[in-house]
Amino acid sequence: MVIEEIDTTSQRAALAGRLCDAIQHRWSAEVRAVGVCGSVAHGDDNESSDVDLVVITYRPRTGPKPAMRKVDGIPVDLRVLCAEEALAGARQLTARWPLLADRYMTTFGLHDPKDFFKELREAHQHLLTEARPAEFSQLARHNWAVANGARQRAVRLTQWYDTDAALVTIAEARVHAALVAGFLTRTWFRNPADAVKRTGVAAADMQELGAILKYQADELAARGRPVDGTLGALFD
């Protein structure tokens, strides 16, 4: 997805522009590009949105320091990466890919004279084109194991009447079940809340989540990545 422009009347887009100007003024020789991602880049930010700003530097450990805080009452998440590190990330498929891909595919350049964010997007598109189905299935199985383990802990916590801890743990299970669905369908999400909502697991209780995980286990087995096996299979 290529973002041609953002809503400059948005309070958060305006803040992103001011932050970009301040960064360029102070670190002009060190900063290669500045972009905004998340809801501001998608053009649907609202009063509950934050500003996700990414700064690309020429060299590691230069430019502003990463930070998370409020600016004029608006939460700001400032990430700082050197260009080499950012490109390496775009070319790597990890277990959290469904939650990371949007950063590579949908970033609006506030200051990008040499089209670095286009290069980043193309690098990630190339990765997705070249990645084999088995790689996605392998990472789906990893997330399945995390989801299944979290669900089992939630069941035990409920039996021990530790409902607060069970709620936290079942939320973790839902997120990883959503990531499994993302890998199986090559779908990425904007954040964990978007992931559980779009995959239909946001309101799944223990029993429903168990059924979802059973379906996913069957699907993984059909793709040559069974979730259970012999001792020797653990090392394959």
Per the principal axes of the C-alpha atoms, what is the gross shape? globular
Helix content: 40-55%
Q: Assign the structural class, choosing from mainly alpha, mainly beta, alpha/beta, alpha+beta, or little secondary structure.
A: alpha+beta
Q: Give the distance, in angstroms, between the N- and C-terminal Cα atoms.
A: 36 Å
Low-pLDDT residue intervals, each spanning 5 or more residues = none
By DSSP (H or I, 4+ residues per run), the number of helices equals: 9
Give the mean pLDDT.
95
**Beta-strand level of the residues, as a percent range?**
5-15%
**Gyration radius from CA atoms, angstroms:** 20 Å
Number of DSSP E strands: 5
Please summarize the sheet with the most strands. Answer: 5 strands, mixed
Helix and strand element order? HEHEEEHHEHHHHH
Query: Can you list the strand order of the major beta sheet?
Result: 3-4-2-1-5
Report on this structure.
It is built from 9 helices and 5 strands; from the N terminus they run H-E-H-E-E-E-H-H-E-H-H-H-H-H. The two termini are 36 Å apart. Strand 3 and strand 4 form a beta hairpin. The longest helix is centred in the middle third of the chain and has 27 residues, at 133-159. It is globular and about 60 Å long. Strands 3-4-2-1-5 form a 5-stranded mixed sheet. It is α+β, with helices and mostly antiparallel strands and 236 residues long.
SSE layout and pairings?
Layout: H1 11-26, E1 31-37, H2 39-42, E2 51-57, E3 67-71, E4 74-82, H3 83-90, H4 97-105, E5 108-111, H5 116-130, H6 133-159, H7 163-185, H8 192-198, H9 206-222
Parallel strand pairs: 2-4
Antiparallel strand pairs: 1-2, 1-5, 3-4
